[in-house]
Amino acid sequence: MIKKELLDIICCPESKADLLLDGDTLVSVDKETRRRYKIVNDIPILLIDDSEVLEISEWETIMKKHNKL
To answer: What domains can you pick out in the chain, each with its CATH number?
Structure first.
């Protein structure tokens, strides 16, 4: 599990937006980029080339789930 202290200081490497912990991934709150990053062995993999871009509907569902929309 990623500690809150780490979540407070890391950001999306592309947009510099905050990241939300969603299951075993981190999701950017930036609507334009909508990046999702994997977490492997409690280590966030914040490489743009290894991330995925979410469809707008999936991103909005995640944002609503975390009260960010």
So the answer is: 4-65 (2.20.25.10)
